């Protein structure tokens, strides 16, 4: 009984009626407690198992891993492109443009003159940094070309092999020339027997 001395008493106002037997029981009622709690435990385990499975599919089998790998490779690839532009492309362009440093190409909006962009920024002048814009455009073009070449190469590697022609499923009746099942032994249209015809073809 719940009113006996060996019972654990819980305020029923804080426990739902269907859960009250779980919190107030005697030692002799342990099997009953297990039978009452097992459906809720099984349901909780099922929910947790489903949640873990869905998270595993999302984290490992979805686009999350591809996105993470792409971000890592992209961050490393940006340094390569910047080095290509600054160390190789810009010096070549400098030969044709009189060794102009694109990073120092700027215009001051107030008409004042400064030798370098750093000096103009130090003086607090409003500058139009078109040289930096040109460098960023060059970086973008090179990045787009490299990514295009990589994607084109990967698509060529992933190009599926030509599919083999499917096995025929129909044949022509030699008597009425209608399309029938390849396994037919009698034409459903002209009712001609095809056993002898199939035997001749096999021989």
TrEMBL record:
It holds the Pfam family MscL. One of its GO terms (molecular function) is mechanosensitive monoatomic ion channel activity. HAMAP family: MscL. The lineage of its organism: Bacteria, Bacillati, Bacillota, Clostridia, Eubacteriales. Channel that opens in response to stretch forces in the membrane lipid bilayer. May participate in the regulation of osmotic pressure changes within the cell. Keywords: Cell membrane, Ion channel, Ion transport, Membrane, Transmembrane, Transmembrane helix, Transport. It is found in: Cell membrane. One of its GO terms (cellular component) is plasma membrane. It is a multi-pass membrane protein. Belongs to the MscL family. This is Large-conductance mechanosensitive channel. The chain crosses the membrane at residues 58-81, 133-154. Homopentamer.
